[in-house]
Design brief:
It contains 14 helices and 22 strands. The chain is of the alpha/beta class. The structure holds manganese (II) ion (2 copies).
Amino acid sequence: MAETKRKRGRPRKNPETVADTPVKQAKRRGRPPKNKAQGAADAAKNLVYKTENAWDIKSMVENRIEKFSKGYKAFLDKAKTEREFVREAEELAIRNGFVDLDKVLSEKTPLNPGDKVYRIIKKKLMMLAVIGEKPCEDGTRMVGAHIDSPRVDIKQNPLYESTDMVFMKTHYYGGIKKYQWLAIPLALHGTIMKADGSVIDVSIGEDPDDPVFVITDLLPHLAKDQFEKKLGEAFKGEDMNVLVGSRPDPDKEAKDRFKLNILKILNQKYGITEEDFVSSELEMVPAFKAQDLGFDRSMIGAYGHDDRVCAYPALMAILDTGKPEYTAVCVLTDKEEIGSVGNTGAQSRALENFLADLCALTTKGEYSDRLLRSCLAKSKMLSADVNAAVDPNFEGTHDKLNAAYLGKGLAILKFSGSRGKSGASDAHAEFVGEIRRLFNENQIPWHTTELGAVDKGGGGTIAMMIANLGVDVIDVGVPVLSMHAPYEVVSKVDVYAAYRGYHVFLK
Ligand code: MN
Ligand code: MN
């Protein structure tokens, strides 16, 4: 790491002064020249790689950080699931002049630089683009984040009663520590398709007047056996049943009258029957609201920062993109937490299809598949996903020289994977260099990271799927504490750094 000049202040106005000696500079400013020892210390400063706390950086303006955080918190409360994120994002996109790409296609109108389009797949995956000055076959600049979060899904035949109480069976989604989801208030979000084909959206537990739900936990007094078990074995997925009722139907002769009472309530409110659960997607998510955290209000505590803390800044960055040199793209994918699978995940052809259509609508000649191939090979992406911040409560999990920290801005992760870099997406040094230069030139705070110490675990993002397309891709995201817990923590200054970093990359 030789070249570590990290220009954090404003660029110099007079280029001649760059060649000045420290002595000349000091004289001009009317200060006595520094002594030799001081000069040597200054020289050493330029030789070592040093990270700075982002709150100390001038370009990170306090009231802009606060304003951006406010918007983010409000968005978090409105969009707790992938469907809700897409719904809110579409509204914002339309308000900012984005047009449905399929409408453009059906009208066969060509796209011009500055034009804004979007596409939504199955209400869970969204892509947005601002057409650049250069044709799409010259490549794009993309920011890709995911909008699904770990949670507890309701099974397709969920309801049963036991000991005069009613429960719903669940199947957890994503990598969770099961005990964290017990004994906290849960809200029910999702969609039900009824027998007649009509669809209803459900959200219970967010309004202060709403009821909430809970997966109960065992009292410590009777937990002797539980305490002796290994953490991974003490809590069983099949036992994560949510408590949803305990009042009987008045008909004392009725069978399962506690469950019947719940079915009657659901039928009254939503017009659904028990069979309708079969064609539903219902998610139990923490009922908490996003909130300032700490005496100094420097952080935000919320459910699902992973990965909305990158997805929201990415969305804001593309909404604020005018007429870029290269076509700017924002990709918001689903199913990342379970391997980016399915036709709404990053492994699907959705992005290729989207870019193919952009190529077709921006080329002056005939569309051919080679335009898309060229576009992919020349495209670059910031994979915007969270990183595990060092937590002083849990020593030994990180190599502190190569770790993400709260408050140091964007975490640049050259490679992911586990053990011997197995399954890693490894960005090329040249691309890392490009991003480092871009961030330094724009005073975007960043630091280099690895996902935990060697052999301590590991992980991946959508980066590897995107890299398979030929795209240069690197993970650049926000450090998080308590990742995948129902209540995660981020620093406000890092959230704003993400917005600024993604914006300079896209514009
Ligand atoms: Mn993630
Ligand atoms: Mn995750």
